[in-house]
Amino acid sequence: DAKTTQPNSMESNEEEPVHLPCNHSTISGTDYIHWYRQLPSQGPEYVIHGLTSNVNNRMASLAIAEDRKSSTLILHRATLRDAAVYYCILRLPQGGSEKLVFGKGTKLTVNP
Amino acid sequence: NAGVTQTPKFRILKIGQSMTLQCTQDMNHNYMYWYRQDPGMGLKLIYYSVGAGITDKGEVPNGYNVSRSTTEDFPLRLELAAPSQTSVYFCASISRRGGSNQPQHFGDGTRLSIL
Fold this sequence. Notes:
The structure holds two protein chains of two kinds. Chain A is mainly beta. Chain A has no helices and nine strands. In chain A, the strands form two sheets. Chain A has a five-stranded mixed β-sheet with strand order 1-9-8-3-4, with no helix packed on it. Chain A has a four-stranded antiparallel β-sheet with strand order 2-7-6-5, with no helix packed on it. In chain A, 33% of the residues are buried. The mean pLDDT of chain A is 90. By secondary structure, chain B is an all-beta fold. Chain B contains no helices and eleven strands. In chain B, the strands form two sheets. In chain B, strands 2, 4, 5, 6, 9, 10 and 11 form a seven-stranded mixed β-sheet that branches. Chain B has a four-stranded antiparallel β-sheet with strand order 1-3-8-7, with no helix packed on it. In chain B, strand 5 (43-51) and strand 6 form a beta hairpin. Chain A binds chain B through residues 32, 34, 36, 41-46, 49, 87, 91, 93-94, 97-105, and chain B through 4, 31, 33, 35, 40-45, 48, 50, 56, 58, 90, 92, 94, 96, 100-101, 103-109.
């Protein structure tokens, strides 16, 4: 499984944008980039995923570098509810068992 | 729609006791997973199942057993509880029928302490 590297922690102020980086220099051409987040005392929840093009949904945006060796999860206006651990994960589109390999993620603190 | 339901939410066991963590999903998902999460760490895969009657080991299977007799249920069994199994356990499921890259759905976890 290809590895990802994320900062251990980041801090933001409420209502400001947040850019969460992820490096994945060994990504293969068929790996999708997935983001999950884990709120305190809850299970992980899916946020967004993409392959090459930037993606938007109601929760966030995903910006993918042209060489695909890095990506950035963008929360456009952070709220207190966005305080969580964010995981960047690489997945094959139809890979075998669909296993997710979690690193330690980035702990996001949102200040009021 | 309940999604993935785990029971119990909390449990304290004595060393050497056994127990079963229950997981059920009502989304007709064919793939199911068990993860454990130690404090401050990411999730590690224990076992997974690609359908009823089929299970396989993940990254940390020692000390655990699973079965998958129905699509809905995927119980995790601890036979001889050890302090190293103190952790939060998450069950997850995914459908492979809707095409590629479907998101995994997680339960709220079972917090297990072994003393």
